[in-house]
Amino acid sequence: MLIYLAGPDVFLPDAIEIGRRKQAICARHGLTGLYPLDNAFDAATPELSLEIFRANEAMMIKASAIIANLTPFRGPSADAGTVYELGFMAGRGKLCLGYCNDPLPYPRRIAARGEVTARDGVLHDAHGHVVEDFGLADNLMIAHALDLHGCALVTPQQAPDDLWHDLAAFEACVRLAATRLVQAQAPR
Amino acid sequence: MLIYLAGPDVFLPDAIEIGRRKQAICARHGLTGLYPLDNAFDAATPELSLEIFRANEAMMIKASAIIANLTPFRGPSADAGTVYELGFMAGRGKLCLGYCNDPLPYPRRIAARGEVTARDGVLHDAHGHVVEDFGLADNLMIAHALDLHGCALVTPQQAPDDLWHDLAAFEACVRLAATRLVQAQAPR
């Protein structure tokens, strides 16, 4: 059973090693993790970024599920490329799972990066833009996509010491995916 | 022909007025804009955020195309909810269009919000995470989703004075959508 491993992990200095660790965890649970960096490209490839896109899309189309690392990246929300991929998989009716190593609700994540003020019972950021306040970890489209197209977002009780290398929440997603995908295959 | 109007516009203080302006532009080009705030909810609705998700998803499923406002929001990338919706529509094979009122390439957007340094020919942000440097406006999944599932990202030559209220790039998308959707309907 193929699982697409989405996340900003690919931008970390040890991106390849993290992919191998994630794939080893998948294998222990009887699943095969597809990691974007498995697609090797020559740096001289013409239209390299387009080829990377095509290869990632082909991996997603092959996979039965996505596990997205939705830990905030360069702002209070998840990595934009990862969120695109979550949407793509939801749109195609695939099983959607995700984890976030930052357990703070969205307004507190924004407050940690700038001022959040209440006006007439509504929260606003420093630019005067409304801040969603539903007790969710990120934009409601992300949180509820997981609820309705897969499994609820997995977050730790407390942020781990190393946000980018702690894979406990990832492994919880793998366990959920293994159970759900086996159920889906069982004869009725 | 129904077009889903995605964007962080819904978080602006004059969100309803912007939606009306966008819908008027669509109507002038023979299209019908579906705007998330058209779904009215009582603030006391149980599970309000889930109902908003369901209503947005139903709108997307009805629409033939999406026009996403991909102007950077709370960071160097587009709004996470909008990007999820772009992915969802691409996954369902709908026509994907988007615009961005900030014409800077992605590394310069990141540099505007913190340090970007080159090491061994690769750009890194202040956290040591690799910065994509393909001359694109945002994460490559977003930019190339538009190239391959619709029309290339529309950006102005120069950022308009008012990033959030200037609708020239939006109108360019509406024009492209009108042409493409009429072509798709024409007998072959």
Biggest interface: chains and residue counts? A-B, 53 and 53 residues
Q: What integer value in Å does the Rg of chain A equal?
A: 17 Å
For this structure, the CATH topology of the largest domain in chain A is: Rossmann fold
Q: Which class of secondary structure composition applies to the elements of chain A?
A: alpha/beta
Strand percentage of chain A? 5-15%
Helix content of chain A: 25-40%
Number of strands of chain A: 6
Order of helices and strands of chain A: EHEHEHEHEEHH
Q: Return the average pLDDT of chain A rounded to an integer.
A: 95
Taking the alpha carbons of the first and last residues of chain A, their distance comes to: 19 Å
Shape-level CATH architecture of the largest domain in chain A: 3-Layer(aba) Sandwich
Structure description:
2 copies of one chain form a homodimer. Chain A contains 6 helices and 6 strands. Chain A is of the alpha/beta class and 188 residues long. Chain A has 2 domains: 2-102 and 139-185, Rossmann fold; 104-136, no CATH class. In chain A, strand 3 (65-69), helix 3 and strand 4 (95-99) form a beta-alpha-beta unit. Chain A starts with a strand and ends with a helix. Chains A and B meet through helix 2, helix 3 and helix 5 of A and helix 2, helix 3 and helix 5 of B.
Summarize the model shown.
With 188 residues, chain A is of the alpha/beta class.
Produce the secondary structure layout.
The structure is a homodimer.
Chain A: E1 2-6, H1 15-28, E2 32-34, H2 48-62, E3 65-69, H3 80-91, E4 95-99, H4 106-111, E5 116-119, E6 122-125, H5 140-149, H6 168-185
Parallel strand pairs in A: 1-2, 1-3, 3-4
Antiparallel strand pairs in A: 5-6
Protein name (chains A, B): Nucleoside 2-deoxyribosyltransferase
GO molecular function, one term (chains A, B): transferase activity
Keywords (chains A, B): Transferase
